[in-house]
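We store amino acids, tokens; thus:
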Amino acid sequence: MGSNFLPQELIRKKRDGKALTDPEIRFLVKGICNLSLTDAQLGAFAMAVFHNGMDMEERISLTKQMMHSGKVLDWGNLNLEGPVVDKHSTGGVGDKVSIILAPIVAACGAFVPMISGRGLGHTGGTLDKLCSIPGYDATPSKQKFRNTVKQVGCAIIGQTSELAPADKRLYATRDVTATVESISLITSSILSKKLASGLDALVMDVKTGSGAFADNYAMAKELATSIARVATGLGVPTRCLITDMNQVLGSSVGNAVEILECIDFLSNPSAADKRLFDITIELAANMLQISGIHSDLKSASRKVQKVINSGLAAETFSRMVSSLGGPTDLIHNANKYLKPMDVISPVKSIRSGYISSMNVREIGMSMVTLKAGRTSASDSIDHGIGLTGMVQIGQWIEQGQELAYAHVHNDNDANFLQHELTKSITISDEIPVKNPLIYEVLE
């Protein structure tokens, strides 16, 4: 079946705006994996989809075929005493939610096998943050991964070559052919990897705003709708929250500094940044409800706050880190392992007023310039570079007061961040209208 298809005819069909059938899509995905589809053909196919889109049936088919292009994890034989659930964020600046969320949800009785990405462009990667912990193994053996999920309740690791290999090649092609921003291709890329993790339910955090991939609301809504419909069409109940990324999430940006903020959050939740706290609770409660642990969001939210306040979530985080090769006493001796930088320098405001807006993407890119992020997949990362004590929108600041603290190697880097931050953060005399943290919930 399908051997009589010609790649160029299927590309022509999509180029002319016609829908591809499931067998045709299966043929193309097989060609992506066994390399019978050339780079030129794959680029042409991506461009045809970019211009003409795919209907929901095609998206479901492409996601399903990419998901089955490699191994699909099966948790059935582990006899887990709870549902397998995950959360995925489309990424932002200062978005460290996954690192706090996985142990919280695990402490509530669910199992979270979280397969995360490294950062690219202005958005930080969950994996890069965790890799600032000495010894943390982001690519453990399959057995180690399964054992950690069973014994601890959660494990955050990197994508293995066994999961959705078709996506790896298609994504690399999209990256170099200017076809990344296609809702159809983004949907299948995210979901083929997530659903290959063998999930019972999924919660998506689709960010919108100046620091998000979907900077305008219409695109965020289209993506959220697409993800919810495709995943549900493949039998995995999925809920999408559209959330705000018009300011840095939490008080830090970087790798080691964000891990420190996560540890502080779990150890001392009453002092946590309010927006970071609220969104974490909301996403966790939605995960517990959609996976069936709680019937309503109110009781789910109470349970979440209970496991944070009791210290159970912090203990679960600690066990996950040590199970994956990190130190056993990270929570109590974080500064021993995440050593401070040579220079910690205040970035000072050049005028008084209210913080009215920030160009979050620019803030993210200034971190990339100092190697806290990467512009290509092969770049190495400087885990120590970061910003802490970030101001938030609506805050009043005096001239000369700190917008943030730069954690850097030398004064040149500190001066660079002084220049970039004062350029990226707008201060005005009027109190700004604040955006809601969560715009909409779709399922």
In short: The chain has three domains: 7-52, 76-323, 341-428. The mean pLDDT is 94. The chain is about 45% helix and 15% strand. The domain at 341-428 is CATH 3.90.1170.30 (Aldehyde Oxidoreductase; domain 3).
